[in-house]
Amino acid sequence: MGIGHAREHAPADGRTRGPGSGEEGAHLDRAAVERAGRRLADRVWRTPVLRCDQLDARSGARLWLKAENLQRGGSFKVRGALLAVEHLAGSGSRGVIAQSTGNHAIAVALAARQHGLPAIVVLPSDAPPTKIHRIREAGAEVMTAGTLLADRVAAVAQLRELHGYDVIDPYQNPHVVAGQGTATAELIDQAAQVGVHLDAVVVPVGGGSAIAGACLAVEGRGVSVVGAEPQAVPALTTALRTQGPVTVAAGHTIADGLRPDRIGDLPFALAHRVVSAVVTVSEEAIADALRAAFLHARLVIEPAAATALAAALEHASRYGRDVGVLLSGGNVEPSLAASLLTGQETPAPHTTAA
Amino acid sequence: MGIGHAREHAPADGRTRGPGSGEEGAHLDRAAVERAGRRLADRVWRTPVLRCDQLDARSGARLWLKAENLQRGGSFKVRGALLAVEHLAGSGSRGVIAQSTGNHAIAVALAARQHGLPAIVVLPSDAPPTKIHRIREAGAEVMTAGTLLADRVAAVAQLRELHGYDVIDPYQNPHVVAGQGTATAELIDQAAQVGVHLDAVVVPVGGGSAIAGACLAVEGRGVSVVGAEPQAVPALTTALRTQGPVTVAAGHTIADGLRPDRIGDLPFALAHRVVSAVVTVSEEAIADALRAAFLHARLVIEPAAATALAAALEHASRYGRDVGVLLSGGNVEPSLAASLLTGQETPAPHTTAA
């Protein structure tokens, strides 16, 4: 409780891409995740790890579903945001800025309100209305900028100049990454509490904070990390092939949370060292997994979470008998969910060729 | 484990309405529920008790949501069915028959398959296709008979005559009632494990097994029981007024699980003695609660469960600070869920006059 994170925090040094993203990850390790977990206890829900007979049967493995769709703010991102905002509030910050595809923004808005700090968030112009509504409800100011990560990063730089607020990078900030890692750490612990050693965890990959956190959480625990990303935006797959983050030409994906077209430097470095596989998932498989979660697990999950579930449904038996799945969030647009449920949504054909 | 239920089991004596429903409830008590809980451990999921900030804010209380929508078979009814079928299988039964609005039938089908017994279930002709599909998937034979409880009871009597199978009554069978009570008992225990004494539990009322089980589970625990039923089918409200079960003129309700137009004798007797309030819920409120569960709690619940949630959202603050809600099941028709999510479903106007 209240243990400082000074070791993991270093001032921006310009070596990484995004404004405010330059906090070094050098001291990030499993112990940092465990400290983050202690600080978050009683502030986030310890979400359940759920089982589902039908999904097990489909996957050929026992799936352990970490239901972060049931988390405060509807996604695991509140974990990292709470720690990052708390740190800034304790350093005399006058306000915070975040760019996000949605969930990090919701999380930062909620955390800023808790600490009485103003918050401005920058979203892509095609962000789901429900996510925008939730951010405004939490009291943050919403701006939109293009549809690409670079557009949002540029807008953040201007806003930072204008307001003098602090930027909380969604993929690089060490508090964010350590905080996001607590979801995977809890998943491993909760399985262990019922006597189960997870062979692997499957996590969705957008900008990379989930997989970065997972890479830290599994240190020394003998658990593999598998990333899942849309075929339409293979940012980590491409980065691993080219040995470094690159901006990919992004196709359309319903997984709005996984639209960042470039993996963060810190997530890349961790993933490059730790992950055992990255799976790309078709739009049909994402839609099908979202439906399966609804019909069989009775869970509302967003397409980003469905991407991880889809990867697990298809490949889990290759990873072992007991496989954890990070159901990262549940902020799905009701109209999208409705059309997926009634089979009216046909994913764009160009995403299914691979 | 393996403790016999012989004491609660007595042969049919014709004193109650349904065929096979005459098993006496005289020895049903909290201890019976606790024995049932021990027998069910490791055979049903210990479903989580969930919290949701937005639903708390709306209700003015802290709601503790027992997520039996996440249970095997998608509802709490697998609890009672497993015990009842196990008992019959141990007595040399050649097969089982059940009538149900859907969830008891799914549960009996799953339980019968586990014990290698054939099962025939009788549903109303307007039963949701998804429930019928799940029953067939579980290997049971499905028949339909009218839309009223009396129609199904008559069909069950004929089938019993024809096949010589044993009938598992959904509202009167003591194993069923004790089993259903374990859901409420777990809810109270799980809250207690985090230091919370529940002031009340809100349960949906159809034929009455949930409220009967709840009445047993709260014995000596200082927890009030509140029933919630659709305004369109006020079977318990009417029975309490007339001092005995009566068949009510049922209007249309989307809560297919709560369509039985008469409360069982045993549930009535227990409810009459124990419940502190019965709330009737409009169709709009049921639809609204189902949407709220989706949007805020990220849970897929069926309209029966939404009826209990609706009652809690409107009245929980009158019952105390900490109020449990039995989210009884999650077998909602995808097309209904989709239309509720997009606001296309307007409940029948005649149900909203009260």
Automatic annotation (TrEMBL), chains A, B:
Cofactor: pyridoxal 5'-phosphate
Stretches the record annotates as Disordered: 1-25
Statement: the UniProt record of this protein carries the keyword Lyase: yes
GO molecular function: L-serine ammonia-lyase activity; threonine deaminase activity
Gene Ontology process terms (BP): isoleucine biosynthetic process; L-serine catabolic process; L-threonine catabolic process
Superkingdom: Bacteria
Catalytic function, reaction form: L-threonine = 2-oxobutanoate + NH4(+)
Pfam families: PALP (PF00291)
UniProt keyword list: Lyase, Pyridoxal phosphate
SUPFAM superfamilies found in the cross-reference section: Tryptophan synthase beta subunit-like PLP-dependent enzymes
Segments forming domain Tryptophan synthase beta chain-like PALP: 42-329
Enzyme Commission designation: 4.3.1.19
Biased composition (Basic and acidic residues): 1-16
Family assignment from sequence similarity: Belongs to the serine/threonine dehydratase family.
Known role: Catalyzes the anaerobic formation of alpha-ketobutyrate and ammonia from threonine in a two-step reaction. The first step involved a dehydration of threonine and a production of enamine intermediates (aminocrotonate), which tautomerizes to its imine form (iminobutyrate). Both intermediates are unstable and short-lived. The second step is the nonenzymatic hydrolysis of the enamine/imine intermediates to form 2-ketobutyrate and free ammonia. In the low water environment of the cell, the second step is accelerated by RidA.
Protein's name in the database: threonine ammonia-lyase
Organism expressing this protein natively: Streptomyces paradoxus
Classification lineage: Bacteria, Bacillati, Actinomycetota, Actinomycetes, Kitasatosporales
